[in-house]
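2024-03-11 09:14:02 DEBUG pipeline.ingest accepted 1 chain
2024-03-11 09:14:02 DEBUG pipeline.ingest length=360
2024-03-11 09:14:03 DEBUG pipeline.predict start
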Amino acid sequence: MLTGISITGDTRVVQPGWSVGRPLAEPRSYAQGVLLVTGEVLIVGGMGREDGIVMRRHAELFDPLAGATTVLPDNRVGRMWHTTTALRDDRVLIAGGVERVGDGFGTLGLVDIFDPHTRSWRSAAQLRQPRSDHAATLLRDGRVLVAGGHAGAQPLSSVEIYDPVRDAWDRVAPLPKTRWSFSMTTLRDGRVLVAGGFVEPGLQSDTSLYYDPGADRWSEGPHLLAERANHTTLVLRDGTLLLIGGQRAGASSAERYDPVLGLFVSAGTLVQPRMFAQAAERSDGSVILVGGILRPESGEGFVPNPLAELWDRATNKWSAVAAAPTARAAGAAVAIGQAICIFGGSAKDDVPVSAVECFR
């Protein structure tokens, strides 16, 4: 278990606040992680570069007790820019993304389901529209809403819902405009909130939308405090949505959707601006933000930021904490109790890493 600042098993304490677990079996960036009902973490997808650009076909399970991962033997289609959604029956739905095709990428309609109790995969009904860079959220009735994204270079406005009982996708009302790299979460009242992202190439948005699943209707939501894309999105345990950093105007700030007011409110100023960072909520309600890169217009290229920051909800302020041993962006971040663990990601020049580190 995670005790103090260490993970039990073959680990070493690097500096106050951080512990290091055994590395992933394969370096991978742009992977995704999800905490399972078993207490393990599923790390799925991502990209490696040892023989050119390759996609990771094998998923890994991280055991917090051992501080190490196990490679799952059943390989799937390697992918990135997919979505992972935990279903009500403990299974995990993996939808869409891109696979490597020759010297380019092909958009996927493939859907896989992982059962943590049997550690097995099965193929599910394919998306009606292959997509990547999309968003997904679990509705209150147990279905999964998937919206927007890309099909190749074509932005999408289409929306569909997966019914796990029928193993079927149904087309529903499309977004009013194409949108990708946005936030989407299910609110306590059952509506879905979409926020930020790109609505046209190079055009970040400060708009939000509500979706009513019962009426199958989209409506305008409140404006964000800043235009955001490539920001970090975190659904807090109270059902609110925290948006952190991003490109250009939103890089240095954070904001939170207040469901009582129906508005976005300030969540403070970051110690350092960043995009493609990782964040997780700790059990005390604070939020740890790790990694990311500076705004691309800084001219420094892909240089990850090792600084970690802590958001105190009571004061609404960010403060610097111990820097991570590995500077990275686009890792998979998962909260485990009071700790946040980061799996893989991209180091300098967007090179995939296998490092596993936890901050407590």
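2024-03-11 09:14:41 DEBUG pipeline.report The longest strand covers residues 263-269.
2024-03-11 09:14:41 DEBUG pipeline.predict end
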